[in-house]
Amino acid sequence: MDELDSTLRHFVEEIRLLVERDPIEGFRRWSALHTELAQLGQFELCDDMLRELKGMDLPGYGLGIVRYAEGWTLDRSGEWEPAIERYQAALSAFQDAELPLDVQILTQIGSLYQDQGHYPEAQDAYEQAFESADEHGRALLMNNLGGLCALRDQPDEARVHFENARTLLEGTDDKCNLAAVLVGLASLAQDRGELNDAVQHLARAIVIFRDLRRPTAMAAAVASLALTYHRAGEYTVAADTYRTALEYFVAYKDRANIARTLANMALTSVAAGKKDEAIGYLQQAVAEYREIGDAHGEQIALDNLRQLGS
Amino acid sequence: MQDDELARRLGPAAFRILSQWEAQQHLRHTFVRAFDNGATDAKVMVVDRHDERNNTAVRLVLKLDRFTGTDFGTTEYARHAQAIHDSGSWAKQHLAHLVDSPIPVGDGWWLVFQSVAGNLDQFTLLGNLVRELSDENAEPSCTSAVLVEFFVAIVTGVLADWAGPPSVTYLSVPKFLEAHFGYRLAEGKPLQRMAGSSSEPTLALLRDRSLTDGVELTVPVGIGHGDLHFDNAMVRIRPSAVPDDFRLFDLAKREAAGPLGRDPAHLLMHMINGALQHLALSALGPLRRVLLDPEHAQRDRLPAWLRDIITRTYEAAEQWIEPYGYGPDWRLQRPLSLYAATLMVYVRDATRPEDRPWLKALADEAAETFLATVKPGSRTKPATPTAPAARRPTPQQPRPNRPAERFVVGRQAETGMFAELVEGRTDQRLLNVYGPGGIGKTEVLRKFGANAERRGLRFGTADLAECEERPSTVLRQLCLTLIAHETDDALLDVLRLLEQHDTMREIVLASGGVDAMFDAVGAPTNRAAVQATVDHSAVVLTPDLRAALDNRFSLQRFLRSSDRDVTSAFGDAFAAVQDGAPSAVLLDTYEEAGKLDTWVRQHLLPVVPDRTRIVVFGRNQLAKQNFDWSDHDDAILSYPLPELGEDDAKSYLRHYGLTDAAALDKVYRFTGGYPLVLVLVRKLAKEAGGWHAVGEFDHIADRDKVAGQLLDRILREEQVHAVREVIEKCAIASWINPEVIRHLLDVTKEEARRLYTLVEVHSFVSRHPEGVRLHDKIRELLIDRLRFTSETDYQRLRQRLLAYHASKTIGVKPADG
Known about the structure:
The structure holds two protein chains of two kinds.
Chain A: H1 3-21, H2 23-39, H3 43-54, H4 62-76, H5 80-96, H6 102-115, H7 119-132, H8 135-151, H9 155-170, H10 175-192, H11 195-211, H12 215-231, H13 235-251, H14 255-271, H15 275-292, H16 295-307
Helix pairs in contact in A: 1-2, 1-3, 2-4, 3-4, 4-5, 5-6, 6-7, 6-8, 7-8, 8-9, 8-10, 9-10, 10-11, 10-12, 11-12, 12-13, 12-14, 13-14, 14-15, 15-16
Chain B: H1 2-10, H2 12-25, E1 27-34, E2 43-51, E3 56-66, H3 76-94, E4 97-106, E5 109-115, E6 123-125, H4 126-134, H5 144-163, E7 167-172, H6 173-181, H7 190-196, H8 204-207, E8 216-224, E9 233-236, E10 242-248, E11 255-259, H9 262-275, H10 281-292, H11 304-321, H12 327-346, H13 356-374, H14 412-422, E12 430-434, H15 441-454, E13 458-463, H16 471-482, H17 489-510, H18 514-517, H19 527-536, H20 543-548, H21 552-578, E14 583-588, H22 596-607, E15 612-618, H23 622-625, E16 636-640, H24 646-655, H25 661-671, H26 675-688, H27 703-717, H28 721-729, H29 738-745, H30 749-759, E17 765-768, E18 771-774, H31 776-789, H32 791-807
Parallel strand pairs in B: 12-15, 12-16, 13-14, 14-15
Antiparallel strand pairs in B: 1-2, 2-3, 3-5, 4-5, 6-9, 7-8, 8-11, 9-10, 17-18
Helix pairs in contact in B: 1-2, 5-11, 9-12, 12-13, 14-15, 16-17, 16-21, 17-21, 21-22, 26-27, 27-31, 28-30, 29-30, 31-32
């Protein structure tokens, strides 16, 4: 018998019993393991868990749990539009049942809008969540707002948000989100040309993610490190570092980051004078973006391909 | 009292004689359980013999049988004794042994006691296993793989170990057939009457020597059982299945120099005759073809277990004969042995009339296959229109309708509903027929199929239990059953596409998986090796597929989209061959869909043509199986299989052995024909040891209360207190295995394992990947009962179960539990 299948069956039973007893506890347990499995690239297991759950006799708010989990899975595989639909359905179900889970779900919705370049919608979602968030929730939202400001070319506002988030999180046990803030700060440092600072932030984040066994989050920090090397003109080191990140993304089936990394590797190849290699990477990136429905990423990759005359 | 039961089963005359004989011998016998299936006149049962002089006991088989001949040197007893004498150590292990002399009862009837090596409680009839596995509503006592091994072991045992090295004799075809038929050609026997009729073309091969003039067969002969069939073989299934450990009885037809091709063919045909009523219509044609050519392209249209029994028993026989140099003769004669065995089964009284046309068709095709080999161009009879190879008969050449099934004689309302559906007179395109196991969903499916065929509608069927949760297997089943004409090129193209996609997966597997084929950035690590695998493949891949093998990311995209792509191609092909005409897709055993459920909903249903109607059969309503189906409520016509009418309910009960008219009336009134209650009553009879032990019922209007009362009765019948406790307490768990028992009952590992071995054979359970599971509705009733008895106990058990599951789950742990 496959060990993972067996684990899944036990988990589904555990959730069934927990949800009957305490829906919030059940939801948190579900989210925690779902996140863990997604980090390990076990998307099929996530799907299997969902299917099993959908066959259970669930209370009304059970729909919220299912839709949230669906949104999570779609989100991680880059299918952002259906992911937002599922998150919104989860939000409605929990609100109908008067379960206080708005902050978590609105944060996810905001992140998705942000990734797709829909910045006003992202801002709205974060602000709605902010209204009912506790201190920890506010720290996470500040981190997201920092990222949003960075994307909107508002580096000073971004830095303020990131620093606030760091202050709130430094004294807590939530090292995972602290590491995420450090990655944001590194990104700002890259833009300012403060590459040594960026490397320091990223090195710390990588250690935290590694210790917490968050391989795809760690790989994302490694990819950011590769970008730092690229900006420093260290193309050979950048290419090797990207390769390391890509190995993780491939191993853990993080399709959105696979597409992103291939597209970035192409830029490093161009800078290193390897045009054919760059075209190959971009062609794969375009197909990957198209498959997951990321039109934003696909368009950028296509523009880059055109500039290479292909 | 057990003795009363023995008296009832033997009848007054035989019981009186036995009692007189017992008194003289200081012996007494008590009935333990029946061993026969009611299909023959002979009564076979297990009894305990108590020796009152020595105060000892022994368990024996008691058989009451009739001998109508005049030569008492050929009675079963005489032949049996000779067989034991001739067969040495193999007989000690595998043949039933005679105990005492036969006891004459009068009017040709004899009582015979037999013993078998080993514990009788560990054995069951091979026929019981076949019936359980071929009936989707029964709970199998072993897996299909084990059943196949039993058949192989028996064929190997009979040929290699019992017969051993063969002698050969040289026979004409009619003599070969006479050797197979033996006593069945005696004056007045049905085969003799059939052979004597010149208007019966099927037996022309036996009657008309000119057809095979000049053909002389080299025939392996030796010791043979002579009447080897699945109700003459006991196999050991408890505590676990042991394929090599079988016992044969009924040696009345045993021969010292019989044709050795007869026993395997007879065993196979007897089994197939028993399984015919449970097979999908679409499997009947392929079954004939595969019997005559085990490598036939339609072999995938048969249930895997049936296909494997045919193939493996053929292989077992060939492995035995090949070293002696008679392999080619054996293969040449196999259709002829099959022809003879088919006709022996054809004339049996117990053969269902509706199955006889199929058996006759098989005999005809077997004869033609043989003749085509020895006399190319000849025929046994005028050519009859036959369906083209690999095709379901076209509407212009309909297969004779199969009359009503054995235990569901009505269901006219359902057939009417199907008619409305396919005629487009309903608002919905999808009909969901659901109900508990054992109530005849598959029979209704067959009726729908027959109805569609009568209407000339194209219809496809897939049994999801046979599809291993793979969309490609469902699509292959649908294509094969939908193909109606030689010119259905579009569907044939889909089959080719499926083959290509399967080949791609095999290449990936043969190359060690995607990670072994490529480096991290997508370049192949050993292009030449992959190329070599591609070149050696029997299937030629298209350039696009070859290109996908050249890059990690391309290949992974191909693998991710494969199911979606072939499904889309299937939809296009289906629409093309249908050309706007109505059609139907019937999906059976949907409760086994598993991962296929999402695919069916999201990919398959959207691509079937607009005028195609879909019927989904399963134990659960679709919305209960996965609540995503609730989103399609308006498009689904949900239909719980309702109470059976009186005739149907009684047919159902008769099918499960209740034949007494008064008892039928009582049980029917009690159940009201309600499916779940009928199933529970049947289970009660099984647990109690037979219908005679069920006793009286109180009439209650509330069906759940009726079911609850039955559950109480069934649990009271459970003789081992601990087993009852396991069933009652472990009902809160979705599955039961030794670990669950240990945690919920707080017993040692060893005790938990012991209890599990008792529970896993209980009639309430079916298999689960983690152990066994209680049937859903029974579980629901037991949980209600547990909560009603003690909510505190229920909560305590729940808490234990939660802690157990949490301990088995990876990663973060719950805060408490």
